[in-house]
Amino acid sequence: MKFTIGFSPCPNDTFIFDALVNKKIDTEGFEFEAVLEDVQTLNKLAIARKLDISKISYGVLPLVTNNYLVLNSGGALGKGVGPLLIAMHEIKNLPSVIEDLTVAIPGENTTAHMLFSYAFPEAKKKQFLVFNEIEDAVLTGKADAGVIIHENRFTYQDRGLFKLMDLGEYWEKETAAPIPLGGIIVKKEIDKEVQQKLDRLIKKSVQYSFSHYPQISSYISSHSQEMSEDVMRKHIDLYVNNFSLDLGVEGKAAVNKLLDVYSNIHKWRTTGTNIFVE
Fold this sequence. Notes:
Blueprint: E1 2-7, H1 11-21, E2 31-36, H2 39-47, E3 53-57, E4 68-70, E5 76-78, E6 84-87, H3 94-97, E7 103-105, H4 111-119, E8 126-128, H5 134-139, E9 145-148, H6 152-155, E10 162-166, H7 167-175, E11 179-187, H8 192-212, H9 218-222, H10 229-239, H11 242-245, H12 248-266
Parallel strand pairs: 1-2, 1-3, 7-8, 7-9
Antiparallel strand pairs: 3-11, 4-11, 5-11, 6-9, 6-10
Helix pairs in contact: 1-8, 1-10, 4-7
């Protein structure tokens, strides 16, 4: 049985799925065709039902719950791992002036957008770009501020940029929940026992990578050639943790809290059915 599986080339995702797609673990007869794309592209593919299994931003989850369920393993939740709002310099009285600022955001259907909207519901002038274009948009003056994710969290200061707010810290303070960044979804039409088996295999893949860490495999490094191994490890340390092994009660509660926030922002309501693989 063969499945398409989408994830990003970022170190945290290649760390998680390395053993699975490269058969470093027993895949129990399953074959996987890896589709590596940036997260916004993966979000669009999920909306279009193109992939059997995929990484998505939790911000897009409300748009795909009719066709997908959330797997317990492989996702990214945590504390101190949220997106940052940055600019060329400090902006005083930010909440009162945010409506007048052009803010670059890494994709419309991303968790970063939802967390920014949660902190600044009055913001109107949003510019949606690929995540690695955000810093340049701010530096060139195309945007007054930008929301950065992934490795840019570690490098923005090197480019002379200023942190206005840690949007993850704001979320944690207001909700007392970890930040749901990215989840792994599977098509509902796939047999329930197969869904559960896929969940177990992804967990084994994460466990395999943890058992060989801090070694950086050639699969991880080949997709992150512009990063040093130190930055790769920082990336993994920040985004891969116990929630990547199993969402658990706390992780599921955080995801449901994010859906509540989405409901308030977009006047959307869940169907009341379970959204997780059981």
